[in-house]
Design a protein that fits this description.
The protein is 44% helix and 16% strand. An 8-stranded mixed β-sheet has the order 3-4-2-1-5-6-7-8, with helices on both faces. The protein has a 6-stranded parallel β-sheet with strand order 11-10-9-12-13-14, sandwiched between helices. The chain has 15 helices and 14 strands. Strand 10, helix 9 and strand 11 form a beta-alpha-beta unit.
């Protein structure tokens, strides 16, 4: 049995990846403590066997680089102090830090000096994300700094985790050693999204589309809203549910108001817990993944897509290199990123062809069989055990 402490700048109850990794360890008998952001939605300090240590730092939603870094730095300082205290109290075998940002791995400095092994779970490519978010080029001083931090952070850890093959290849192209990485796909947890889970369909005759996740401009929700505005002419009962929160939420609400689509586009009240999310997905006819294509999103394999496939609803997605690395046109419907007319056409086509929807779901099960979490989690167990 291992003693493990994890840290992530995230809300634990709504973060699929960190929950899945922490809880799969407790399920086999390991002890897991988790330092995370404090949530308004829950006062729990133990969650499915994981001991939570929430810090009172709020996420920043906006475009100020300085305020982003201020929140990260505040969490880093508090996390460093708490991590050090907990290590001397519990003597962890392994410290696992989840990005973003990459430099959070240095909260494990004292435990590493004292002999603990350190894993850095690299969720996102920070240089590419900053290029996308702040509209700067690779040669900009900020991107050079972020890339240097990424390299130093991965060098500090004993091992690192990449979320898929193209993701690892980009990290290697930045200068990171390939042998340092394990690849652990961001697969849905069958306890929550598996076929054995069920939810009764709401009997209201709606043709339901769903998007869930971060409401940022790069995720293309403006395109999805405009597509619904076109599709409603042929599907008067269409409804798009947007579940999540983020910087672009107010702008999206304004677009819906301006186009008179309030009866066709509905927003959740922020993020929802995974168990509730699973039920919402099962109510939907189609999952929509309308990401724009840029230097960051081209390397995304959105977990929402994998969750739609796991639950068993057809998916319409933007065409990007990484998504096409794992899925072909027999498994999901593609449209060109940013093209709301083509997205609307795909929505209408699948509305009119129930057999095509069934065929997409059936073909997408190939991915579920090849990358089932029940089998893939052995990659994670092997990594943990190799460090003990």
């Amino acid at each position: 049995m291992a003693k493990i402490c994890m840290l992530a700048f995230t809300h634990y109850s709504t973060d699929t990846r960190v929950r899945r990794e922490a809880e799969v360890l407790t399920a086999r008998g390991d002890e897991v403590d988790f330092i995370c952001l404090k949530e308004d939605r829950t006062n729990q300090h133990t969650f499915n066997g994981v001991q939570l240590y929430p810090l009172s730092v709020r996420r920043y939603r906006g475009n100020s680089t300085l305020l982003y870094l201020t929140r990260y730095f505040s969490f880093f300082v508090r996390g460093f102090l708490l991590m050090t205290y907990l290590y001397y109290k519990n003597r962890y075998d392994i410290i696992q830090v989840h990005t973003m940002p990459d430099f959070m791995v240095f909260t494990a400095l004292i435990p590493k000096i004292c002999g603990a092994k350190v894993i850095l779970d690299v969720h996102d490519l920070m240089p590419e994300l900053f290029m996308s978010k702040f509209g700067v080029e690779k040669r900009h001083w900020l991107i050079k700094l972020v890339t240097w931090i990424e390299l130093r952070s991965i060098a500090f850890a004993h091992n690192a985790i990449a979320v898929h093959m193209p993701h690892r290849d980009v990290l290697v192209s930045h200068g990171c050693p390939e042998e340092k990485f394990s690849i652990l796909l961001n697969l849905p947890d069958s306890r929550i999204f598996g076929a054995s889970c069920s939810a009764e369909r709401i009997p209201d005759n709606k043709f339901r589309l769903i998007y869930h996740g971060t409401l940022a401009r790069r995720h293309g929700l403006e395109i999805a809203i405009r597509a619904v505005g076109l599709a409603k002419k042929q599907i008067p009962n269409v409804e798009l549910s947007i579940v999540g929160d983020g910087d672009n939420r107010e702008n999206l609400i304004r677009i819906v108001d301006d186009q008179g689509l309030n009866n066709y586009v509905k927003f959740s009240d922020g993020k929802v817990a995974l168990e509730e999310l699973s039920s919402l997905i099962r109510q939907a006819d189609i999952g929509v993944v309308p990401i724009l294509k840029d230097v960051f999103t081209r390397y995304m394999l959105p977990v929402k897509l994998l969750e739609y496939v796991k639950v068993g609803i057809p998916v319409i997605s933007s065409r990007t290199e990484t998504i096409e690395f794992y899925f072909d046109e027999t498994m999901i419907r593609f449209f060109e990123p940013g093209n709301h007319t083509e997205l609307a056409e795909q929505i209408v086509d699948l509305y009119n062809d129930q057999q095509a929807r069934r065929l997409l779901v059936s073909n997408a099960r190939t991915f579920n069989r090849e990358f089932a979490w029940e089998d893939h989690k052995t990659v994670y167990y092997d990594l943990i055990d190799s460090l003990l």
